[in-house]
Amino acid sequence: MLLRHLQALAADGDTLLRAYPSRAHAVDEVVNDFSHYLQMAKKAVQEGLITDAMLDKARAVEAQITEMSKKSNPGLWSDQGLRTEREWAVVRQLSADALKAIGYDLEPPPPLSM
Predict the structure, then answer these.
(1) Residue % of the chain over a pLDDT of 70
(2) SS3 labels along 7-22
(3) Taking the model in full, what pTM does it have?
(4) CB-based contacts of 41: which residues, under 8 Å, 6+ apart?
(5) Hey, where are the domains in the chain?
C-alpha cells in the first residue's frame, strides 16, 4: 500500500484527484493514508523486503508534507493547490525518486482506485 500511495503522490494532480471518489477530500486522504502506510513499512525493513535507505526516500516525502503543514497556506490543501502549487511538484518528484529507489515504476493510479 505504501507503493500505491507513492505512485498516487507521484502522479499529476488531476490523475490523483480522479483516483478518489468525488465525495472524498483526496488531498487529505492520500496524505493521511501515506503517513499510515509509511509507519507500517518499518516491518518491511525488518523483514528484509526493502532497505532502510529505500524507506528513507519515502520519509523524504513525508518530511516535505510536514513542512507544507507548517505553512499558513490553506490553498496548499485544495484541489487547485494540488494541481498548481510548487510544493506539490516537490512531493511528486520526491515520490518518483522513492519509487525508483525501491525499484518500482511510476505507474499512475487508475480512476477510482484509491
Answers:
(1) 100
(2) HHHHCCHHHHHHCCCC
(3) 0.93
(4) 2, 50, 55, 58
(5) 2-102
